[in-house]
Amino acid sequence: MQKYISIKGARENNLKNISLEIPRNKITAVVGVSGSGKSSLIIDILQKESMRQLFDTMGGSNQVKKPLVDSIEGLSPVIYIDQHITNRNPRSTVGTATDILKLIRLLFAQVGVRECSHCGNKILPLISEYENDIDWSDDMNNPSEILRDKCPVCGHEIRKFRMSDFSYNNPNGACPKCHGIGQIYSVNRSVTIDEELSVYDGAFKSWGKNEIKVYVPIVLAASKYYGFEFNPNEKIKNLSHEAKAFLYYGNDDQRFKKYYPNVARPNEKKYLFMGFINHMEITYEKSLDNEGWTERFGRFMTRVECSECNGSRMSKDLDMVKVNGVSMNQLMLYTLGEIRNWILGYKEYSVNRIEYKFVGEVVELIIGRLNELIGLGLGYLSLSRSIISLSFGEHQRLRVANILGSNLTEMIYIFDEPTIGLHPADNDMIINAINVLKNKGNTIIIIEHDVDLIRKADYIVEIGPEAGTNGGQLLFAGTMDEFLKSENSIMKNYLLKKYNPLRETDCTQGDCIKIRNARKHNLKSISVNIALNKINVITGVSGSGKSSLIFDVLVEALENYYKKGIKNENIEGYEKNDNVICMSQKPISKGARSNIATYTDIYTDIRKLFEKQPKAKSLGLDKKDFSFNVRGGRCEHCEGQGTVELIMVLMPTMEVQCPVCKGKRFNKNVLEVKYKDKSITDILNTTCDNALPLFRDVPGIYRVLKAMSDIGLGYLTIGHPLNQLSGGECQRIRLVRELSQNKKGKNLYVFDEPTTGLHPRDIEKLVLIMKSLKRNGHTLVVIEHNLDLMLEADHIIDLGTGGGAEGGKVVYQGSVGGLLMKPESRTGSCIKQYILQNK
Q1: What's residue 147's pLDDT?
Q2: Helix, strand or coil, per DSSP, at residue 765
Q3: Domains of the chain, with CATH numbers?
Q4: Which of 143, 383, 584, 788 is the most core-located residue (most Cβ within 10 A)?
């Protein structure tokens, strides 16, 4: 095996024909400002060439485009651990993604103790059941079949359980109310129903003309059958209780039936109605796999914990089976840390018993997997936690834990910012995990901005100096000692950055929003102040309660007040702001058709510019022909996507360039039309930075592009798909749209780790924008792990001391300087160490 991965003549995207060597069996950090070409080098060339070579062995490489590179030598299979959560299935949980749940189900099926509901006798597993080795198969051939047994004491019939019965994906094991989801979808009435309007005037926001045409005659017929009055032109709020109950819940719901206990249910369809709310909830749940449906109606729904299973997803029938005194229902709600204590307790109890001979291997596998997850700072998660509810950082660490459980060697592991979502005190967990992989004989490549992790690398590669066309050059490649002496490096300056004395700020006397006795999730009835017209930074380790405090307490209360006029008695100071604006990291869109231009509303203006061009007029083209979402000017082979799916046997589906339009998305006529010598495809493929001079005379477009550049996103192309953005990019795009709209009034802006994915230099740009918002009278609340941003806080609130049950307390609130005096604060210790090492 070669000692280096040798890359020669890399020219993909903005790369300037660079050549370099990356040492094998080492940790290499690839650094550079956002958009400099790091991902082009490592993902678009190294990772994709590895995939192409893999497809080549399966006869499919001719359909996979070869990266623009002269040669790559020393390449081996690549495993890429990125930031994106591709599994959107609500049934996928921490338990299923890690295989821990399968192991626990096997344990319960083998050694679970049942209790007779008739006499209370505890039925132990029979020794005869252990005569053979464990059956590791997950019998789902007859999932609906229920096995029966008899109590040896009273003879009462009692259920016998198989491994498959302990699955919430099996009807026998799933909660009958939520069907194994753990949550139920409920209509968000404040968004969906306007009782100030009539049905005909649009009281039901999710109803169109067709629904009104179909359902109003049924309600009118039912009103005559039952004897209540209903006028579709009357405001909903003025209707009788009976009429509203029928409209909302329909014939068969007890909330309507209670008004007519002696009236028989009609049989004719013309009288039968499920009710607006019941119909929405049932139909939405059945259509979760329909992306179009969820995109359209998701905004009308809200998820609430299932009252039947309390979020465990499991049937109450499983409560009769226990291992070490704990049922499956209870275990699903335990944190991973609590589960480790439980399984260690079971091991201690059973290790000398005959049953352990048969389940000891399972127990050790469970303990090993839990140790890997807890070692990566995920001990506060539960088995029932949905994958789609995890942050990008949590999801990435979950994948790292799964990798640690494998024994693969001579692989290339690529990590995209593995410290995302981690408190600085927990960085060592990721560093230790990466070293474990390296010591197994693997090569580690990290795309990273975190200076702490960069310092731990064996080798540094820096791409730059700027983003887009001004980047793509190899600034440095070498060891850390050589890196710190480099004259070309930009990142080196941040590793050697010196800090001035902390500025003292006193926010105790100014206006504030007061939060009292917050008890959401793990919060321990805490009270804090949010300083108005200041930068408030909320810190604490993962799971300490930061999101619960800000999103589930503060934001929820403010939105209820600003949108509905509902006050929360535990919060004061509502009236001092006009609105609350959240910059979350949630994906803006799941669809591949939405992009930066469409989201920021500049694509309509761009299409109008093309419509006005002489060539467009001569060809009879109008603005709709320059849309890739409708028929007309788009390529119909790929329907304007520019890519088509390549289906490979035994391999995931892959997107490849459309063979008809060659990725250009439009037909030849449309591509002949030019604006300043650029086609519509050229414009979509132009970075925001490079597009600035093109649209200098178009204020609406220029304002958005300038905001993109100022916030450090100028490297993204105008047509960059929203579903390919990182969480940090999504958040900053939301801010761009807000800033470009010039909203008036005093707002409270909430940011969720806005430095995610940012180079230290881009963080400086973000801080300038935050200070500008503060100067304009706005208040900022920032959940953050980045130490540089913490040092910019006027007011800091530190939660902890740990995560989960060990969190939810206020460790400190006040100035940053005061935090350094708190020895119990892990955040304060990290800031102090950070300042000292940069003196």
Answers
A1: 53
A2: helix
A3: 4-85+407-495 (3.40.50.300), 94-182+309-375 (1.20.1580.10), 184-305 (1.10.8.280), 512-587+742-837 (3.40.50.300), 597-686+701-709 (1.20.1580.10)
A4: 383
